[in-house]
Design a protein that fits this description.
alpha+beta; Outer membrane efflux proteins (OEP); 2 domains; two-stranded parallel sheet; 9 helices; elongated
Length: 480
């Protein structure tokens, strides 16, 4: 038996429909527009050809490190994505954000439910004459279905969905940023390892030369044409080079261990064949497109968090308005399951409901203030990310430019030091200079060669960081 007839239902819903329409027409807009992103400078101080770009949808290239033309580095980078545990954690965060978005979207749809229950009961009552009566056991079977749907009048549900969508995109950008960061870290660790290998080879070559110098000095001392201090200086130089060699071997091993951990492998079972040579140095182009803000995933993630925070303001503001829910239920109630589905046993109901909190002790105001503060924080973080990115580009542009010149100058200094060493050694053989001159020349030559390695490593590091700063690629030097 129905609770009310359809005409009666229509007459009850009509006023509420008009009230809802009036509320919609007069309600405040809960969606809040985020502020505009900070503008990039028209040009960078360190390269006047860096021009601002229009919008772009470029993403981080998959193999930007191939600019260094090192097959071993290429192979290691391929293993990084599969084995790095930090990247696996970032992937899980993306999955979590996607599930949150699905949940917020599901809240915008009606919910449906069904139930089946059976009871057997005895009831007691009082007859008209005051005598107590007791009814026999009775069966009751209920078969019900119900539905409810919250009408998103004020945008609370849609704003929550927008917030979660922005958070999902931020998580995806975080994953891209983490992958780019791990790739750059791996490249830097690889460069350092190869530098220590080159130092090891250098010390080994110098040990051979120092051993020959010691033999020469010892022979001259035995012949009475050299003093004891010459032999002691030669021995000191040999021992010092041996200690430096041991240190280079240890540091090379540590870098190999660090690479193993980056790849998600145990250091004890990970080995890289020693080559003793550094990768090629890519040429930094003089023309760089200003796609930094659009292409860097960490900046994109910060911008998406601003959008998510401003959407949460809309969610908080929507709490000031009543919630409208449409609900309906239908079912059958009878004494037995066999004949429950019949017209006499039919029950149903349908109707809207408005709910509004009249007093909450300032909870809604606090939630709104919290959302506003979170949006301000996200905006400040975003702007700081942009400024930091601009600084990083400026720094590494300057470094890459100056270190390229420094490498050439240091190579020239090395050539001069080696020539000086050759001349001084011959002069010592002829007895025209003391061994102290030979030691000074050998030290200068060794330090010059070490400086070449150091400056080359710094140049590779600066270019590696610059590639990371511009999300892995410059436009006029495409990734192979």
């Amino acid at each position: 038996m129905s609770e009310f007839s359809p005409p009666r239902l229509t007459s009850m819903l009509a006023p509420l429909t008009w009230v809802s329409a009036l509320l919609l027409a007069g309600c405040a807009v809960t969606a809040v527009t985020p502020p505009q992103p900070p503008a990039a400078p028209a040009q960078f101080k360190e390269t006047g050809l860096w021009q601002r770009a229009e919008g772009t949808s470029e993403t981080v290239p998959d193999a930007w490190w191939k600019l260094f033309k090192d097959p071993v580095l290429d192979d290691l980078q391929g293993k990084l994505v599969l084995g790095n545990e930090n990247l696996k954690s970032a992937v899980a965060q993306v999955a979590q954000a996607r599930a949150s978005l699905d949940a917020s979207r599901a809240a915008q749809w009606p919910t449906l439910g069904a139930g089946l229950s059976a009871t057997r009961s005895v009831s007691a009552g009082t007859a008209p004459d005051g005598e107590s009566i007791r009814s026999g056991p009775a069966n009751a079977v209920n078969l019900t279905a119900n539905a409810s749907w919250e009408i998103d009048l004020w945008g609370r549900l849609s704003q929550a969905s927008s917030s979660n969508e922005a958070k999902l995109q931020a998580s995806m950008d975080d994953l891209a940023a983490a992958r780019l960061s791990m790739q750059a870290t791996l490249a830097q660790s690889y460069f350092s390892m190869r530098t220590f290998e080159a130092q090891q080879a250098l010390y080994e070559r110098n040990l051979t030369a120092y051993a020959r110098s010691l033999a020469l000095t010892q022979a001259r001392y035995d012949a009475g044409v050299a003093v004891r201090t010459d032999v002691l200086q030669a021995q000191t130089q040999l021992k010092t080079a041996q200690a430096q060699l041991a240190d280079a071997i240890a540091q090379r091993a540590q870098m190999e261990h660090a690479i193993a951990v980056l790849l998600g492998q145990a250091p004890s079972v990970f080995f890289i064949t020693r080559t003793g040579t550094l990768p090629d140095t890519p040429t930094v182009p003089t023309l760089l497109p200003s796609t930094l803000l659009q292409r860097r995933p960490d900046i994109a993630a910060a911008e998406r968090r601003v959008a998510a925070a401003y959407a949460q303001i809309g969610v908080a503001d929507a709490a000031y308005f009543p919630a409208l829910t449409l609900s309906a239920s239908a079912g059958y109630r009878g004494a037995s399951l066999g004949d429950i589905v019949s017209a006499p046993n039919l029950l149903w109901s349908i109707g809207p409901a408005l709910a509004q909190s009249l007093f909450d002790g300032g909870a809604k105001r606090a939630a709104s203030d919290q959302a506003l503060a979170s949006a301000d924080q996200a905006t400040a973080n975003y702007r700081q990310s942009v400024l930091t990115a601009l600084q990083e580009v400026e720094d590494n542009l300057a470094l890459a430019d100056q270190l390229r010149e420094a490498v050439q100058l240091q190579r020239e200094a090395l050539s001069l030091a080696q020539t000086t060493l050759t001349i001084t050694t011959e002069q010592y053989r002829e007895g025209t200079v003391s061994y102290l001159n030979v030691v000074a020349a050998q030290t200068a030559a060794l330090n010059s060669e070490l400086s070449v390695l150091s400056v080359r490593t710094r140049e590779l590091s600066a270019i590696n960081q610059l590639l990371k700063n511009v999300a892995g690629r410059w436009q006029d030097s495409p990734t192979p």
